[in-house]
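Quarterly update from the structural biology core.
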Amino acid sequence: MALDNSNRTQRGFTLWMTGLSGAGKSTIADILVPELARRGLRVEHLDGDVVRRGLCRDLGFSAEDRMRNIERVAFVAKMLSRHGVAVVASFISPYQAMRDHCRREIADFVEVYVRCPLAVCAARDVKGLYKKALAGQIPAFTGISDPFEEPAAPEIVVDTDRETPEESAGRILRWLEERGYVPAAVRPAGETAREAAAAAAPVAVAVHGLQTVPAGKRDTSSGNGRSHPAAPEGAGGSGTPAAGLDEASVLGPIPPHGGRLVNRELAGEEREEALARAREMRRLVLSEKEAADL
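Predicted structure, tokenized:
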């Protein structure tokens, strides 16, 4: 799929993704960043966990320190976007005052509300934080013992309990395309929109408890034209399939983009022997960020 890069000077901007812990901000960012780079943009991802380990490692989680954390990130994002860099920032940023500050500081500021019910985020509990917060081990935890103020007027809202990360990323990209922030993908003659979307979609993965449900397992019976995952992604938080999904629906074969599907799954005794060997292997659990660096 070709890209229309003719007579284009990159327009810097900051895509600010806000939402509860576990809503899917970093997951969507990990889809957007390589796609923006593929389209020829200079892009930088500012991730909350990474920033906390570097630029803001001296800060705690009081309201004052949280505000100072966001002020530093906003300054970095402003400087990058001013010089033509596409910045993808994924931060809980729970207070409206924080996001208002970013909007004042950053010229091309695009706020994305990554919306997800608290119960679904807690069920995913990718990092085990909700369990600790509910046990009183983490004070002032957003959504449990500290408020999350919903954005007043975000440019984009994605509902990650109703759509896959790829669908959320696709809607964000279309918004950016329509407003001239990113170049639109140019489809070869004869290629349909559905084929182009399938070719661009990342492969479904299961990383540290966050599963992407294959398209064939989505429930579209609601009648509103929106695909809904069959169950909350990543319930269980330990790499096990979410409730309501059998193992095959998460880890089964993914049809190729065209051609025919070849079933290479083991069955019977061969499968049991392979599983027994696998259980003897050393297990490494990677975070989303570590897995993205592979």
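The beta strands are 2-3, 13-18, 43-47, 86-90, 109-115, 156-159, 185-186, 206-207, 210-211.
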